[in-house]
From TrEMBL:
It comes from Paracoccus rhizosphaerae. The keyword Amino-acid biosynthesis does not apply. Keywords: Amino-acid transport, ATP-binding, Cell membrane, Membrane, Nucleotide-binding, Translocase, Transport. This is Methionine ABC transporter ATP-binding protein. GO terms for molecular function: ATP binding. Pfam families: ABC_tran, NIL. Residues 10-250 form the ABC transporter domain. The keyword Heme does not apply. It comes from the Bacteria.
Length: 352
C-alpha cells in the first residue's frame, strides 16, 4: 500500500513536516512519508505518543500543511488548496475525535445539524437528513438530549453522525475509542465497520492500540519517530511483523505470553549442555486449525511442550499464537518443518 496508487482514496507522497521552535530551530514531526490508503479500506496508523500520528491525520483535511511532498485526497492536492477548493476537499473529509468535540449547548440533533447549517443546506432538508443520521448510528430515541446526558459511546455516535452529515468520502478517526471502555469500544468499532461496508466510506484512523487494528483495519502502517517503519494489509503484518516496533505492539494483543517461570529463566543464547528451545509459532488462515503439533510428533518424532497459546481473529481470518519449548537439538528441524507447512516461527530464547 505504499507509493502512488490509482485505487487510492488518499496518497502521501514524500511528505515531511517540520515545526518551527521558539529558539529558531525546527522539530521534524514527519519525514519521507509515502503511503497510499486504498479506496474503501479501513486503514489504521499505529504509533506511540509523539510519533506523528495526529500531524499525519491533520494533513488530510488541511489543518496542517506539509513542508515537503504532497497529500492527495481523491487526487486533489490538499496542501496546495485554498478557499473554495480547500472547502470542497473538507466537505469530502469527515473527522471524529477522542473527546468527541460536541457543543454542550446543542442537543444531539443540533450537533448533527451543525455541518449542514454551515454548508448552507436548506432548513427543510436538514431535519430529514438528521433523522436519517440519528437512525444510522442507533440513537433514535435520544435526539433531544444534550451531550451531558449521554454516555461516552453515545457521544461518539453523535460525533460519527455529525461527521457523516455532509456525505464525506473519507472519515478520519483521531483515537476515537481511546476514551471508551472495552465494551463500548467494540460497539463503536462495529459501527465504523458497518459504515465502511454500507457506505463504501474509506476510513483512516490513528490509534496506539493494536487491538483496534486487529478488529477493524484491513490495512495498517506503523509510525515511529515521524517515519513509517512498516505498512501493509493488517493480516500480513500480523503474520510476519518485520520491524521491532511492530512486534512490540503485537506482543500486547496476540495474547500468548510466556509464563513467569519460563520468562525468568530465558537465555538469549543456547547454553552448553542439554537445553530446550523456546519458540513462538504463528498460525494463520487455513493453517490455523491444522493439527500441526500432532504431525510434528508423528512425522518427526519431536515432542513439543505447550507453554501458552491462543487463537483469535484478525478481520475475518483465524490467527493463532503458540509458545512452545522443545529439545534444542531438534529446534532447527522442527522450525523448518513448521515453516514448510505455512506457519511462521520465531526463536524467543533457550532454557536449561
Ligand atoms: N504545532 C506544533 N508545534 C511544534 N511541534 C509540534 C506541533 N505539533 C506537533 N509537534 C511535534 O511533532 C511531533 C509529532 O506530534 P503528533 O501530535 O503528531 O504525535 P502523535 O503521534 O499524534 O502523538 P499523541 O499520540 O501523543 O497525540 C511531536 O514531537 C510533537 O511535539
Amino acid at each position: 500500500m505504499t507509493g502512488t496508487d490509482q485505487g487510492a482514496a488518499m496518497t502521501f507522497e514524500g511528505v515531511g513536516k517540520a515545526f518551527p521552535k521558539a529558539d529558531g530551530s525546527r522539530v521534524t514531526a514527519l519525514a519521507d512519508i509515502n503511503l497510499s490508503v486504498p479506496q474503501g479500506s479501513v486503514t489504521g496508523i499505529i504509533g506511540r505518543s509523539g510519533a506523528g500520528k495526529s500531524t499525519l491525520l491533520r494533513m488530510v483535511n488541511g489543518l496542517e500543511r506539509p513542508t515537503e511532498g504532497r497529500v492527495l485526497v481523491g487526487g486533489r492536492d490538499v496542501g496546495g488548496a485554498n478557499g473554495a477548493a480547500l472547502r470542497a476537499i473538507r466537505r469530502d473529509v469527515g473527522m471524529i475525535f477522542q473527546h468527541f468535540n460536541l457543543l454542550a449547548s446543542r442537543t444531539v440533533r443540533g450537533n448533527i445539524a451543525l455541518p449542514l447549517e454551515i454548508a448552507g443546506t436548506p432548513a427543510q432538508q436538514i431535519r430529514p437528513r438528521v433523522d436519517q443520521l440519528i437512525e444510522q448510528v442507533g440513537l433514535s430515541a435520544l435526539g433531544d438530549r444534550y451531550p451531558a446526558e449521554l454516555s461516552g459511546g453515545q457521544k461518539q455516535r453523535v460525533g460519527i453522525a455529525r461527521a457523516l452529515a455532509t456525505n464525506p468520502k473519507v472519515l478520519l478517526s483521531d483515537e476515537a475509542t481511546s476514551a471508551l471502555d472495552p465494551e463500548t469500544t467494540q460497539t463503536v468499532l462495529e459501527l465504523l465497520e458497518r459504515i465502511n461496508r454500507d457506505l463504501g466510506l474509506t476510513i483512516l484512523l490513528i490509534t496506539h492500540e493494536m487491538a483496534v487494528l486487529r478488529d477493524v483495519a484491513s490495512h495498517m502502517a506503523v509510525i515511529e519517530g515521524g517515519r513509517i517503519v512498516e505498512a501493509g494489509p493488517t493480516y500480513d503484518v500480523f503474520r510476519k511483523p518485520a520491524h521491532p516496533t511492530t512486534r512490540s505492539f503485537l506482543s500486547g494483543v496476540t495474547g500468548a505470553t510466556l509464563p513467569g517461570f519460563i520468562a525468568g529463566r530465558l537465555l538469549p543464547e543456547r547454553p552448553d549442555g542439554p537445553s530446550q528451545e523456546v519458540i513462538r509459532v504463528t498460525f494463520a488462515g487455513q493453517h490455523a486449525t491444522d493439527p500441526m503439533l500432532a504431525r510434528l510428533a508423528t512425522d518427526l518424532g519431536i515432542a513439543a511442550n505447550i507453554l501458552s497459546g491462543n487463537i483469535e481473529e484478525v478481520g475475518p481470518h483465524p490467527f493463532g499464537n503458540l509458545l512452545l519449548s522443545l529439545d534444542a537439538d531438534r529446534g532447527a528441524q522442527a522450525r523448518a518443518y513448521l515453516e514448510r507447512h505455512g506457519l511462521t516461527t520465531e526463536v524467543l530464547g533457550h532454557v536449561r
